[in-house]
Amino acid sequence: MSHWVRIILEDAVSGQENLPEYVRSGLRHLVQIVETSDMWRFRTSELEALADDLATCGCLSELSRLLWRAATSCGFQHFSLFVVSQGRGPVLASRMLTSFNSKWIKCFENKAYQFIDPVISMARIRDGSFLFSDAISFAPTVQAFWQDAERHGVGRHGLCYAASRPDGARVAVNFYSSQSQEKAEENIRLNRHDLEVISQLAIECFCYTSHGPTSDENVLSERELKFLHTLAIADNPKSAFDQVAAFGGNSQIQSAICEKLDVKTIFQALAIASSKQWFDALPYSAEEVVTPVPKLVGGHLED
């Protein structure tokens, strides 16, 4: 359904009382056709082209530019895409894409606003889109947060879209407006469904790109998986690398693993292998088998 088509037709019906009844009836019928059809059209050709670009985007900097275009073309002043929770899957290398200026980002970090921002709090528990006004709070700390945001050019009105991924990761996209609440919500009313689709595409792109497409099943050799498994079961992480000397070329195997999984540290690689249950594919070794039956030595039970 093209939401903006329905909105425009409904507005035409409700705002023109002097229209002939056959015109009003025809417009209402068009609304019903749109409501019951699978037709989808973006409000502008720019938004449609932008959605196509998002569907093929594979670069976080390009994704950021596309979200900036989406925000400004729909009348918003800022956007942010942020990780609400990491979930059970591979750790996402990036936490946020945003058009905020560096001063506000630093202020947000220093004052730990991620624990105060009511939109982030609601994004933790609510799927789909909601208005910032749905997350309203009159707590003094929240009001101080919004006042601080406005001083940095970040509006207190807007739209949030939050979604959970199959691996449990939760990501949200915010579009911020510096206009009055009435004007901001009227703008959202017209663009809401287009922005929901754009947010869905952006979240898919972000999750795919942030941890890279190379972490597919069987991407690591058995030797590399054994190396990581040895690290995983080590009692002391600091001394773990002393236990893997048997693999030889410690630095070489680490570099190979990190390159294959497109990560910076061997412990990020370990997190990926563990979360994807790759260790389940390893064959059992004698040292890993525990049995209550004593071994037979020369036909006799060994004590």
Could you give a short description of this structure?
This protein has 303 residues and is α+β, with helices and mostly antiparallel strands. 48% of the residues lie in helices and 12% in strands. The protein has eleven helices and seven strands.
List the helices and strands and how they pair.
Elements: H1 3-14, H2 21-36, H3 45-56, H4 60-73, E1 78-85, E2 96-98, H5 102-110, H6 118-123, E3 128-131, H7 140-151, E4 157-164, E5 170-177, H8 181-210, H9 222-232, H10 250-261, H11 266-275, E6 296-297, E7 300-301
Helix pairs in contact: 1-2, 1-8, 3-4, 3-8, 4-8, 9-11, 10-11
Explain how this protein is built:
With 303 residues, the chain is an alpha+beta fold. The protein contains 11 helices and 7 strands. It has helices at 3-14, 21-36, 45-56, 60-73, 102-110, 118-123, 140-151, 181-210, 222-232, 250-261, 266-275, and strands at 78-85, 96-98, 128-131, 157-164, 170-177, 296-297, 300-301. Helix 3 runs antiparallel to helix 4. The protein is elongated and about 90 Å long.
Give the biggest beta sheet: 5 strands, antiparallel
Tell me which oligomeric state these chains represent.
Answer: single chain
Residue share in β-strands: 5-15%
Low-confidence stretches: none
Rg, alpha carbons: 27 Å
Helix content: 40-55%
Number of helices: 11
Shape: elongated
Name its key features.
alpha+beta; single chain; 303 residues; 11 helices; 5-stranded antiparallel β-sheet
